[in-house]
Amino acid sequence: MKNGPEHPIKLLFVCSRHRIRSLTAERIFGDMPGIQARSAGTQPDARIVLTEGHIGWADVIFCMEKSHLNRMRLKFPEALQGKHTVTLLIPDDYEFMQSELIDELYGQVSQHIEIPS
Questions:
Q1: Residues 85, 69: contact at Cβ < 8 Å?
Q2: What is the bridge-based pairing of β-strands 60-63 and 84-87?
Q3: pLDDT tens digits, residue range 60-69?
């Protein structure tokens, strides 16, 4: 997927409570040229709870686990139609901005989009 300053790619990162994985991803990818990033959680107690608006905004939706995609499909089936979704299979085993989590996110996300150097 090509992106650039005139047409930034909009990435949405989704985890459970929007405290560690998706928030880390938003922080690291959101500062890159040609990329806009947002994040949210699927649980009612998430820092930012996922809405239909988040899904509508995104070009690509990265879910940390299959359960996150399943919850989105149950709650927002119409909004997800035609959306590019990717499940990263990153477990909830990290701390916020942990270097191993950052490495895992770069490795996984770079398989799906072009990450600026």
A1: yes
A2: parallel
A3: 999 999 999 9
